[in-house]
Amino acid sequence: MAGTFYTSEDIRSLRGYDLYLPLRERVLEAKQFGSEVLQYNHRDVEMIDRAFCLAATVHNTLRESGEPYISHPLAVMSILLDYHMNAIGLCAALLHDVVEDTGVTSAQIQKQFGPTVRLIVDGLTKIQKFNFANSEDAQAENVRKMLLAMSKDERVIEVKLADRLHNMRTLMFKKDEQRRRDIAKETYDIFVPIADRLGMRRMKEELEDLSLRYLDPIAYEEIEKELALAQEQREAVLENIRSAITKALTAFFKKSPAARPEDVERLHNFYIDGRVKTIPGIFRKMYQQHKTFQEISDVYALRIILPELPDCYTVISEIYRLYQPVPNRYKDYIANPKPNGYQSIHNTLYSTDGIRFEIQIRTYQMHYIAEYGVAAHWIYKITKKKDAKEVIRKLVDDVPADSENAQDVVETIKKDIAPRHLVYALSPKQTVYTFPEGATVMDFAYAVHTNLGHCMIGAKVDSKIVPFDYKLQSGDVVEIQRAGTPQLKREWLNIAYTSHAKAKIRAWFRREQRDENIREGRITVQRELQRSFIRLDAQHLDEMILKVTSRKAYTTTDDFYAAVGCGDTQFTNYIPKFREEYQKHMSNRAQESPEQTAKKPKRTVPNEYGIVIDGQEGLKVTLAPCCSPMPGDFIVGHVTQQDGMKIHSVDCQNVPKNFDAADDRDRWLPAHWTETADKVYPVNLTIICRDGLNRAGAVTRVIAENGVNIRSMHFDPPQDDIVTIFITLDMKDLASLEQLMQKINMISAVEKVYRKGRR
């Protein structure tokens, strides 16, 4: 590693100095924000120089674009300079990859740059010590790690978002198309909602736009063409509205008899900006609300920025003299801010030509928050740092820290952290609470107070009794009825919608009822194993539980049963791993010595499909067409009177959920794959698709790109623009099928893809 101190000659000789120099000059410039001046002092500049020198020295590789790697941390630094990040954040931006990609250690970072820079860099360094089962699990762990570090210093997420933004800007250089789509999907599912929750609008909109380019390039191009067709006309419409409002407001302020001269000058200091709705915003209206481009009412938008809060209400009333408002479109986010701190008045109006347009009215301070979110405190002292910390804390609290399922993390971010639609419910004392659409009165109770949720026995909405699963609507006045002691039931986990409420319920069961949790967990595990035809004695089951759950390091099997019983762990998430281990266990038994085998029930040798069936020989074996099992599926055999042994997937809709309760239970026998025959298997997929007849080409293109043969394909007649596609493919194994299904599911028009005949 290079030395701690660098001379000016050292800096000039390093690769990337030509890129660093203009950034350094931006650092040296003083920036004025109202009465505030932001300037980096001499010590700041010296530390940033040292960070650049270290990064330029240790990053010796090239990016896929062919540029030296140092161009990436410099680009991240440039983005954060736009947000006027302080010196520590800029140093972390320059060093964010050195621990992960080079021989530099965290301890060396701390020695040169201090513990805060180390904390940020460590929070951005991906976890590599675990052998994750799949990329989704690794993604979840790294998101949780980042959020934990973010709770200690919000600059972690600001650097991460800038890092992701530059990676998205240069994503076209990645050669692997699927990898590009995976990165875009991760960005859209995780980082766009986080940026939205933190109020970083500029960041959120660009990340969302870049993601959509790769996730649905066809739709993106269609919208882009629609916007380009009448660009001059749209610009003219916006300019006419802007000019009319500017003229009217200027005249109003000048003739206002109640205003003092200084007030007139203050009010005259307003700014009007016109814009066209973003492509992702139009995409959501077209493809999620099934509207045509012409049916979208708020393609046009104007923003009026004013000096003081009272000015906003003065201006909106004056604008009503010019234009007629569209009914039920007024939203006052000043009185009721969004969870990310966003404040503005929104309304949709008719122009004199009958064109709908949206108007947003806010102060300059509100505008800074709308643009930069929690990063605003680096720009202008309009948001106290403790307020930014509170936004971060709430975000971290919403993510399930104890979930073992990657999808729990992703779904929570999409559902709770930055929901597309919000509802506003009130307490009897008129306190307003904000929830994602889909939240219930139980979520309301836990939002008010944990103990109120625990003791809930009923609820009233607008003085009428409602069930626990009643879904909140905006404007509901909710009164929770309570008992003196906790009344929790395990079914509440299925009624609560928000992660906050679910976490409080699980925590109570975890703390108060360990013995019952162990008993409930044991019953759940035994039921699911029986359903999957996994039959193990107590010793082998205990060994398998500790092996399958080794990453969570449960000390005893009772710890695992307790986690399942209280809802901390979903046992169904472990079923694939249990099946895999059970297959190995049964294969090892099949390969035991003759002496060992003689002591155990006789087993058949693998047939043409590579399948072994316990306790049966000589039967004709065929694969059931209802579920089309293939290597990798967990299977069971069914003895029929005419067709011999039919092999089903245990998830087949024709397989009993409880074999012991089945009338023909003696005819259901355990079976497993011992080897994969060198052949392909027919697999039937059902694909639910919007605008399916036009989008089927995208589906077949993905299939062809993966080298998969299509045996047959047909459609159901369209219903409400939804088409069901039935397709039969030739596949070799389950892993390649699941990978293909993931790719099909990423096509934006695809609502759902699943295997035919499966539960």
Based on helices, strands and strand pairing, what is the structural class? alpha+beta
| Uncertain parts | 128-133, 380-386, 596-605
* Span between termini: 57 Å
Q: Tell me, briefly, the overall form.
A: globular
Please tell me the overall pLDDT. Answer: 79
Concise overview:
The protein has 759 residues and is α+β, with helices and mostly antiparallel strands.
Describe the structure.
Helix 7 packs antiparallel against helix 8 (115-124) and helix 11 crosses helix 21 (406-417). Strand 7 (345-350) and strand 8 (356-363) form a beta hairpin. The model is unreliable at 128-133, 380-386 and 596-605 (pLDDT under 50). By secondary structure, the protein is an alpha+beta fold.
Topology:
Layout: H1 8-13, H2 17-28, E1 31-33, E2 36-38, H3 42-58, H4 71-82, H5 87-95, H6 98-101, H7 106-113, H8 115-124, H9 135-152, H10 155-169, H11 177-197, H12 201-215, H13 217-229, H14 231-255, H15 261-268, E3 271-276, H16 279-288, E4 300-306, H17 309-319, E5 324-325, E6 331-332, E7 345-350, E8 356-363, H18 364-372, H19 376-379, H20 385-398, H21 406-417, E9 422-426, E10 432-436, H22 441-448, H23 450-454, E11 456-461, E12 464-466, E13 478-482, H24 492-495, H25 499-512, H26 514-531, H27 538-548, H28 557-566, H29 575-590, H30 594-598, E14 611-613, E15 621-623, E16 635-639, E17 645-649, E18 668-673, E19 681-690, H31 692-705, E20 709-715, E21 722-731, H32 734-745, E22 750-755
Helix pairs in contact: 2-3, 2-4, 3-5, 4-5, 4-10, 5-8, 5-10, 7-8, 8-9, 8-10, 9-20, 9-21, 10-12, 11-12, 11-21, 12-13, 13-16, 14-15, 25-28, 26-28
